[in-house]
Structure formats: structure tokens, C-alpha cells
């Protein structure tokens, strides 16, 4: 797969004479313009202090832009609602996401939509119907306050006439389904950031007499500021320009100091993040920034691991270089394997899909 694209669904309403918002009493049996998230595999969360979910969280909101045109987009168009977009939040009554003020389908003409998520984060957002989204001068928040920054392609030329309304309460735009399904206008979202997770294990196994412990794991020398622009050639993609003149920052993945330690599980056990609350969402960037193939702690990104062998062992540290660049929309699981030496395995995956590559470094 090219990247983690999943769908957020727009559930719309019965027809109105006007393309503008109208009082409910003017049209009988109308259906409000709301949004629905497809069930299943959108692995997203706004704040990291919980497990990565398998669906868009009902506590989250997103911002939708919409324009109306009498002819197919990009013919002359006008804002269907506020040109700065409307925040849509989950509505229990509709079992869907909806703006505070309800809008309805126009009888004729076309609607085009585009969205970003999450709403209310304070991130600067620019949007145009030609170039899509840009997030200028974006700074990654500190660990524990990060969020999954998402942006969509355009859903163009959506018409009331294209929809089947089987029961008067909802509609479906997919003729492949023989019966009603709560579907609608699909907005394809992409992850703007890279997801970073750290795991540890002991190759000696869980029943071995020798145990390993970690006290602190830090990710050092990451850039946290840059600007994103959606591609005008391919709106499913986008590029970051990283601000390399800004100071590099460190992120703490695990911290048990001063006196506590965390037991490293055996390689025969199910792998788990060392700290689910510190799964990081960071800027895509180059990590080996000095002499290629040479670790330079002043310039390169790396993991700094404080560990010991045995409960009464001597505290040791390891500097583990991170060489392969972070790519937008990919998840990177860094697995540190302890034995008589440390093996370091980086699993590079699409945000929620199969492994597409790996490399191993032995310290």
C-alpha cells in the first residue's frame, strides 16, 4: 500500500430548493448534512496517552470546507458554508459527526468537500481549492500532547441526485451494496506525520535466569519545526520543509529515574511498546545528517538507552543510531533486543498495515 488512507464518510440530507441553510419546517422529511467515520481500520488518535484506536475516536472533531457550484468543479464556485471551514463533532442523536448548525443538500448543483483533523489544536491551517492544505510553521508538541495530523483529498462534484435514500433517514452512494448501509461521501485522509514506537525484549526468553532492565530511553536530536504543503500535482501526497536552523530537541520515551527500573520482556512474549503514553508522532525528516554511515552524536538522531543486566547490575548506556529517514504516513517500530550484545531492529510499516521493510544494527 502507498500510505495509510482510510475514509471518513459524509452523510447528507434530503433536498432543498436553495443551496443555503434553511429552517427545518420548510422541507418535510429532510435529512441533515452530517459526517460518518467508516468502521474498521483508521488507526488514529489526537493525544497519545492511550492505545492507538482502530477507528476515529468519537471524542475527536475535524474541520470541513465546502463549496457549491452550478457546474462540475472546478467551474465557478462559492462557499457553501463558512470559508474557514466548520468543525464537525460527534452527535449522539445522528450517530455521526455534524456541525453545530445543520445544513442540507441543494436540489441542483454540486458540492465539493475537503477536511483536516483534529480540530481545536491551535495549528495554523491554510486552505485553497487549488492547492489544498498547508500547515506553515508547525511545531510538534511535547511528548504526551501530540496528535495525529490528518488531511484529505477533495471529494468533488457530490450531487443530491447521486444518492439512494432507502428509508428517508439516511442514504448510500455505493451501488455495490444490495441493501441500505450507512455510507455516504468518502473523504480520503492521509497522515501528515510519522509514528515512532520503541519496544524492548530479551533474546534469552522470559524464563531465563538473566534479566535485563531499562530505566530511561530518549530519542535525541529530532527536528520539531517545519512547514507542510499538500501536493498540487498529486493531492494524495504532500511534503514537509523541515526548519533545520531551529535547535534539535530530545523526546523522552521512558523515564523511571531516579530509582525505578522496567523489566525487559522475553522475546517469546508478545511485543509491546515500552510506554504506550509516549508513542511519538514526529516530523518526517532525515536522521543521518553528517558523514553518511558514520554516527555523529552532535548531528544525527539516535536512541539513548539506560539499562542494566540483573537487578543489582551496573548501570550502562547505549547510543543507537537511527539511519533510515522518517517518511510521512509511515510507522517506525524500533525494537531493542538485549542479550550478550544489543540487537536493534527497525520495522518500517504503513501506519496500520503490513511490514514493508526492516534493517538490523548490532551494537
Give me a quick take on this structure.
With 363 residues, this protein is mainly beta. The protein has strands at residues 6-11, 15-16, 34-37, 62-69, 77-79, 86-91, 96-98, 105-106, 110-117, 126-128, 132-139, 150-152, 155-158, 185-191, 194-202, 212-222, 225-230, 238-242, 249-255, 262-263, 280-282, 302-309, 316-321, 330-338, 342-350, 355-362.
Show the helix and strand layout.
Elements: E1 6-11, E2 15-16, E3 34-37, E4 62-69, E5 77-79, E6 86-91, E7 96-98, E8 105-106, E9 110-117, E10 126-128, E11 132-139, E12 150-152, E13 155-158, E14 185-191, E15 194-202, E16 212-222, E17 225-230, E18 238-242, E19 249-255, E20 262-263, E21 280-282, E22 302-309, E23 316-321, E24 330-338, E25 342-350, E26 355-362
Written description of the protein model:
The protein has 363 residues and is mostly beta strands. Helix content is 0%, strand content 41%. It contains no helices and 26 strands. The strands form five sheets. Strands 1, 3, 4, 5, 6, 7, 9, 12, 13 and 14 form a ten-stranded antiparallel beta sheet that branches. Strand 4 (62-69) and strand 5 form a beta hairpin. The protein is elongated. 37% of the residues are buried. Residues 1-29, 38-52, 167-183 and 353-363 have low confidence and may be disordered.
Amino acid at each position: 500500500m502507498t500510505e495509510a488512507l482510510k475514509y471518513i464518510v459524509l452523510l447528507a440530507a434530503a433536498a432543498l430548493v436553495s443551496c443555503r441553510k434553511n429552517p427545518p419546517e420548510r422541507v418535510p422529511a429532510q435529512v441533515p448534512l452530517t459526517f460518518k467515520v467508516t468502521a474498521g481500520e483508521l488507526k488514529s488518535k489526537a493525544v497519545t496517552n492511550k492505545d492507538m484506536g482502530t477507528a476515529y475516536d468519537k471524542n475527536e472533531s475535524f474541520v470541513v470546507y465546502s463549496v457549491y457550484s452550478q457546474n462540475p468543479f472546478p467551474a465557478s464556485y462559492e462557499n457553501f458554508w463558512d470559508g474557514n471551514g466548520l468543525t464537525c463533532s460527534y452527535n449522539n442523536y445522528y450517530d455521526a459527526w455534524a456541525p453545530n448548525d445543520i445544513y442540507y443538500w441543494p436540489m441542483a448543483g454540486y458540492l465539493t468537500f475537503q477536511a483536516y483533523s483534529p480540530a481545536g489544536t491551535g495549528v495554523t491551517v491554510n486552505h485553497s481549492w487549488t492547492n489544498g492544505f498547508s500547515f506553515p510553521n508547525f511545531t510538534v508538541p511535547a511528548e504526551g500532547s501530540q496528535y495525529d495530523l490528518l488531511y484529505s483529498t477533495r471529494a468533488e462534484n457530490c450531487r443530491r441526485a447521486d444518492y439512494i435514500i432507502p428509508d428517508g433517514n439516511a442514504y448510500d452512494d455505493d451501488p455495490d451494496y444490495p441493501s441500505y448501509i450507512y455510507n455516504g461521501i468518502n473523504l480520503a485522509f492521509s497522515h501528515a506525520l510519522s509514528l515512532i514506537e520503541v519496544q524492548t525484549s530479551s533474546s534469552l526468553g522470559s524464563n531465563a535466569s538473566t534479566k535485563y532492565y531499562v530505566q530511561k530511553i530518549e530519542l535525541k536530536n529530532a527536528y520539531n519545526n517545519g512547514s507542510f504543503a499538500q501536493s498540487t500535482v498529486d493531492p494524495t501526497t504532500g511534503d514537509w520543509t523541515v526548519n533545520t536552523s531551529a535547535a534539535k530537541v530530545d523526546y523522552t520515551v521512558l523515564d523511571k529515574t531516579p530509582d525505578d527500573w522496567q523489566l525487559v520482556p522475553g522475546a517469546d512474549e508478545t511485543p509491546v511498546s515500552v510506554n504506550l503514553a509516549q508513542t511519538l508522532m514526529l516530523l518526517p525528516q532525515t536522521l543521518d545528517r553528517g558523514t553518511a554511515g558514520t554516527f555523529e552524536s552532535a548531528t544525527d538522531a539516535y536512541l539513548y538507552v539506560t539499562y542494566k543486566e540483573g537487578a543489582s547490575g551496573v548501570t550502562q548506556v547505549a547510543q543507537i543510531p537511527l539511519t533510515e529517514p522518517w517518511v510521512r504516513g509511515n510507522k517506525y517500530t524500533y525494537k531493542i533486543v538485549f542479550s550478550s550484545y544489543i540487537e536493534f531492529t527497525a520495522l518500517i510499516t504503513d501506519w496500520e498495515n503490513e511490514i514493508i521493510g526492516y534493517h538490523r544494527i548490532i551494537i
